[in-house]
Amino acid sequence: MTAHQKMDKADSRNRLDDMVQGLVGSPMDRPDGPLKVSGRATYAHEWDVPDMLYGVLVRATISKGRVTDVASSYLIGKNGVRAVITDDRLLRRPAQGGADEAPPQGSKQVDYFGQPIALVVADSFEQARHGANILAVSYEAEGNAAFDPEAADTETDQPEDDQLDQGDLDQAMTDAAFTVDQVYRTPGHNSAAMEPHCAIASWDGDKLTLRGSYQMLNFNINELADALHIVPDNIRMLSPYVGGGFGSKLGISPEAVSAAIAAKEIGQPVCVALSRPQVFETTMRRSETRQHVRLACGEDGVLTGIGHECLVSNLPGESFYEPVTQATHFMYGGKHRKLGIEVARINRTCGGSVRAPGEAVGMQVLENAMDELAEAAGIDPVELRRRNVPDRHPEQDIPYSSRRFIEALDEGAIIFEWDKRNKMPGSLREGDWLIGHGMAGAARVNILSEAKAKVTLLADGSAVVETDMTDIGTGTYAILTQIAGEMLGLPADKIETKLGDSDLPSGPGSGGSWGAASTGSAVFLACEDIRKAIAKKLGIDEADLRLAEGKAGRGDTAQPITEVLDGTPISAIGHIEPGQTLEEMQQATYGSYFAEVAVNAVTGETRVKRMLGVFGAGRILNEKTATSQCYGGMIWGIGSALTEELVFDNRDGHIVNHDLAEYHIPVNLDVPQIEVVLLEERDEWASPIQAKGIGELGICGAAAAVTNAIYNATGIRIRDYPATLDKLLADLPGG
Amino acid sequence: MKPFTYARATDRADAIAQGGNATYIAGGTNLLDLMKLEVMAPDKLVDINRLDLAEISGTDDGALRIGALVTNSDCAADTRVRQDYPVLSRAILAGASGQLRNKATTGGNLCQRTRCYYFYDMAIPCNKREPGSGCQAMQGFNRIHAILGASDACIATYPGDMAVAMTALDAQIQIEGADGETRLVPIQEFHLLPGDHPEKDNILAAGELITGVILPPPVEGKQIYRKVRDRASYAFALCSLAAVVEMDGETIASAALAFGGLAHKPWRDPDVEALLVGEKPSADLFGKAADQLLADAQGYGSNDFKIPLTKRVLISVLKEATDKGAAA
Ligand SMILES: Cc1cc2nc3c(=O)[nH]c(=O)nc-3n(C[C@H](O)[C@H](O)[C@H](O)COP(=O)(O)OP(=O)(O)OC[C@H]3O[C@@H](n4cnc5c(N)ncnc54)[C@H](O)[C@@H]3O)c2cc1C
Ligand code: SF4
To answer: With a 6 A CB cut-off, is B28 part of the ligand 1 pocket?
Structure first.
């Protein structure tokens, strides 16, 4: 049985609300939680594969040019070294998310400092690492590499579909009662997932099993097959547990392809793991941005124009670029609009998707500019935003699906006691600390992707959910269990959810916040089909069927589900496809952030004292995991605001701070008790479960609340992120 | 990791006998990181963790001896240290993380190497790692680098906290050499400035073993440790200041000021201290002290901010230290 639904129209049945098991929405603990905290969940590097060898990738130490010689012969056979792989199929960088084909290959050409150019394979990891450290490589460097995206002679191009010139913004700026015209900069980021990338390849004849840490198996398998020149049917990928991805594991990456090549060549399984510096150098970076924002409004604060023109960067030839203006297109009104993206072509680590590509940096800056406009116009920042919520998409003239932005602003203002804040910048002091408050809006586009999942109700009254979907720490095991349990009237411990196996029905994986709503809908549809089959057996209407606590029936005439099944399991495949509702409605998630900071008047150190996020993201499937996603996003927002920055040396483009000692993600002490409030919402245009994505929403503007609060505390506008103390020092009063 | 041999020393004599052509390993929290990268690639490791050096004990003349293997956690938590040398306890607790402090030892902490990014990257020239190869930090990214006492060869800093407090306390380091003799070295003489030999961090000769640190008998006065860093915890000091300041009525009787994060060693400037002693605290005086301290300071671009930062920190700490109202 396959239950198929294409989202060509709204699904306002809200079927999940008719269910009575009480699982969906509840803050259920993750079923995989105990395994993870006790070390029993098998991450990529932890598989016990017999006869396994270890490979370590070798990095290029030039920025552009060719490898002319790899002197491997003196290494092989000594100190456990088995082989040095320099195959034309090695990846020069990972595939972009959803690429579905191999990224640029070949170990001879070097495009950036740190690029993998060879793999040293040895009996032990330590031996392989030493081999990689001492491998002598000769190069022919090309002198024309570019490193600085803003340098006058750096080549740039402008992706056609991302340029908008509507009305006359220059005129609107001239005519406006109040304007903002500022340039902001955000630095590059690395995903810095807790689990470094790793792959173990083992061959059985022509069949490859790849155990690795990846987000989108359905695509990864095709990328891997394409890279190896084999058919996808010969590959099985296993990623049951992924220790964080944030975009860095969307596409197949060099460790997987090199492990597969080496394992085939040597005839033994090979494990390739990246060290932390390699994670920084060879996985995707978030591009740094330069953002020129112009805002024009009348006396009433209503926007008449928005300009958002951005410079980002990537390697020559890469089609991905940071879509900085993604939410600017629909967030606020204003007739005159100029939005554009320019891509500088430079020889730095490849740019790609990092949590909330686009909004993470775009909303951050737009919300700073809105704060500046609020001040210029003398209007409360919350009120300014309320006044600029458009009725219809200001460019495409389509309606919005459900949007709880104003509610998020109002609710947040009440909870945070926004009206009690000190409005005069730089005037609230406690000892050496200057105290300030700031807020910002949040928005992130919503995406539904095609997904399939299989659900089987077994004769013993338990159920199995199967899909190649991944759980990258987000809680997929929990929410799919909950949806199935809710629909089939089973407690969570009667459901087994199997994920991360490419042999299972495929979905879009985890990325772009689409995973839960997409695969969740597929599970829902499969369960609906099973419900129909049960209703049929009972001779009743599915609408009247009540499934709860392992019993089936209508009203109080329930009987154990096992009796109804009578020894015959029922299984169904759910299949969801995006459709017209994505085109006809502007779909997004919204929210608000409020932050209180203390800035040390002597040293410029900023500490966030409290932070609130209020979010509307459709139906919340699990309050606990959804809240945790928001925590994570907001914590990254704190990092973006205060400390996180990839530093490149513009003499050769290498990443200077490529470890967690000097790339400063927030630590516990940097993070105050964060409060997250999730608004009740059903978005019937988004999915048959009325859910939208929530994985990225927490970061989409969060940093702006912090820097707006720094302004309120000190009177200093930070337009060059992160707000490290050196940028504040000169204008602070001192002790 | 380069292959190496490993031996566990049974006692001090055994360690020193084996130590001549070997590298000691204590907590390993710095050494192992560097060995993985092959920034350090010893042929032989001598494990000193079984030596009898994990005691904190009082001496007859009222000093406190901290054994070289006392962990940072134990040292910071010791009642005598907390009572009589609170600046040391606070400095240690301001460093690294709980997990690291549980492993890190007193001797290892003194010998921890710089955090210069270029030093850590084997593909980048660095005079400290490979004498004569050049210094990429000088014209590169040098946010965490020195503003005092640097040389044309190297602008790295000693990154630690513990030694900064020990410097303000006039600690002495006990070192045992190949001859079995123990010498006592004032901590100010232990770390070296980079000069023409940035590869040498400190005065230890091959095979010499740090056995302990002697803290002189407790002194009067307020003890303050102020550490400025990029995040609230788990970050090295951009600038830190250990201050032990004693007042005599209205005037400053003594001031021991040691700075971290500014130089290749914990930095003490006797002229600055002399300028303060006997004077009444005032904004003017503190400003003069800061100007004196920073007269020869030099920034290299990304670390320019350390000069005004240090001035602010010194003035603020001196205010706190000489303010009768505030608690120490
Ligand atoms: C991420 C991170 C953050 C950190 N943050 C801070 C911080 O904020 N502040 C701070 O002060 N420190 C910090 N540290 C450094 C930490 O304090 C040091 O790594 C630790 O103190 C070293 O002690 P150990 O016993 O582990 O030394 P080891 O790594 O064992 O040894 C270090 C060096 O000392 C030598 N050595 C050790 N013992 C002796 C001895 N008895 N005699 C002679 N030589 C000896 C070794 O040969 C080696 O060269 C941090 C470290 C890390 C990894
Ligand atoms: S500052 Fe010193 S440690 Fe850093 S690169 Fe220069 S020589 Fe090497």
So the answer is: yes
